Structures are given as C-alpha cells and as structure tokens.
Amino acid sequence: MKGGLGIWCALASLLAGVLRADADTPIVADLSEHLIAVTTGFTGADLLLFGAVNQTGDIALVVRGPDESVTLRRKTRMVGVWFNGTGVTFTKVPGFYAVAGTESLMEHTPPTVLRRHQVGVDHLKLELVDPDRVDQPVTYRQALVGKMQELGLFPAAVEPITVLADRLFRATVRFPANVPTGDYRVEVLFIRDGEVISAQSTPLTVSKIGFGADVFDFANRQGGAYGVIAVIVAASAGWIASLVFRKA
User: What are phi and psi of 185, to 5 degrees?
Assistant: First the structure.
C-alpha cells in the first residue's frame, strides 16, 4: 500500500512538473526502481515506468542492455556427420530488449522513425562483423532473434502503455529469471505527427547481490582458485557419498 501511494505521489509531482514545463519538455518519466536485485531463487521481476505528458501524442518505451557479441554457427553435414560450420558474429546485441507503447504507436509512426530509434524487434540494429562475407545475412538475423525470443529475452509483443485522463501514463516490463546482469538503458520517446519531439533516457542496473553475487565475483576474479575449490568440493562430496553408501 505504501509503495503504491509513493508511486501515485511521484506521479502527481511529475504531472505538476510537466504542466509547468514549456512545449520543449512535453513529457517526464521515471522508474519504480533503478536497481533489479538478482538474489538466490530469483524468478524474474516487474519494472514499472510512470510519467506524465502535457500534449497529445504517442509514447514509446524501449528497454535494452547490456550489449554483447553473439556468434551463430550453421551446422553442416559431412559423410553423414553434423559439424558446426563457419561462425557469423553479431556485435552490440542487447542481452535483453523490450518495447512498450501506446495503442496507436506502431500504426501512426513512420517506419523510418521506428528504425532510427530502434523501436520494435524488426527495427533493432544487429550489426554483422564482415557483412560482405556473410551469405544470407537475413537468415542469420532471423535465427538470432528467434533464439533470443525463445529465451524470453526479446519479447515479441509490444507491451501496452496505459494513459490516464490524457495526462498520466504507466507501463510494466517483465524481466525473466534468466535476464543478464549489467547496465541497461530505458528510453522514453514522445512522438507527435510522426516525429519524435522529446526523448528521455534513464539508467537501470541489473545486479547480483548476496552470497550468489560473492561466488560469481570470486569465480570471475579468481578463476583458477575457484576451479581448484570446485574440484575439491566435488571430490569431497563424492568421497562422503561413497562412505555413506558403503555403510548402508
């Protein structure tokens, strides 16, 4: 109850601010949280975006990050055996990408504008390394997008942005349990007459915390020591188990 009251108070403050603003600042927005904590047993999280506008138009929300390189390999068959073929690498692939928008966003906004601001999976820029050497790049792109959608990291649907009384708006984005940690960017666009007239970018962090985070950090900083400890723990567990079953 207190959390909901706090959000509504924040919405009221945002509305007051945007109504005082001039035409160059038609929209203000914020997040319910700027940190998504990944703890042991993490099952996903919902992120709430809320804000206010002083004009009529469409609103787009784009959540993406962290960028990484992804290599795909097409399997080839030789002498009845399947092998991984030459790899194709994409750069600056977001580990998570989601879009929310008002009902008429995709219908009223020109494709050129959507591509420029990468609104929608179809308009997401996925850059190939050495594109001139890649045969059928569209096929590889479709495979990459399909893989990310299967993992729940590229939701295909555009989530709805609800506008209340033509002033306040809100949207919820679901982060799955397998969402990668790192720095994210949440971009809010205000679109009118087919053009983006205002944009706001807000940082978001997805981070491991607690004991799991300590183990993860140790494994990355001290890989050799972590490997030795893991082998010792596994060997000890096997030895103890053999003793138990021998006595049984």
Answer: -125, 130
